[in-house]
Amino acid sequence: MNFTLYPAIDLKDGQCVRLLRGEMDKATVFSDSPADQARAFREAGFTHLHVVDLNGAFEGKAVNRAAV
């Protein structure tokens, strides 16, 4: 069985985060630079990236466009 892994960057207020139980006020920041995080994934050999604008998902409009 073959499968492809896609690393993910979840953006909140321009930072790379993970939410606790999907709650925006319970975010752990992993990086202040989405570009640096994307480069790190590229350097690790990944060719694709899944990016989620969490602010946009909760507000219904793109918010982190500049970070993307």
Automatic annotation (TrEMBL):
Entry GO MF terms: 1-(5-phosphoribosyl)-5-[(5-phosphoribosylamino)methylideneamino]imidazole-4-carboxamide isomerase activity
Transmembrane segments: none
EC number of this enzyme: 5.3.1.16
Cellular component annotations (GO), alphabetically ordered: cytoplasm
Keyword field: Amino-acid biosynthesis, Histidine biosynthesis, Isomerase
Gene3D superfamilies on file: Aldolase class I
InterPro entries linked to this entry: Aldolase_TIM, His_biosynth, Isoase_HisA-like, RibuloseP-bd_barrel
Annotated pathway: Amino-acid biosynthesis
Pfam families found in the cross-reference section: His_biosynth
GO BP terms: L-histidine biosynthetic process; L-tryptophan biosynthetic process
Entry coiled-coil feature ranges: none
Domain of life, source organism: Bacteria
Recorded family membership: Belongs to the HisA/HisF family.
PANTHER family: 1-(5-PHOSPHORIBOSYL)-5-[(5-PHOSPHORIBOSYLAMINO)METHYLIDENEAMINO] IMIDAZOLE-4-CARBOXAMIDE ISOMERASE
Protein name: 1-(5-phosphoribosyl)-5-((5-phosphoribosylamino)methylideneamino)imidazole-4-carboxamide isomerase
Organism in which the protein naturally occurs: Hyphomonas atlantica
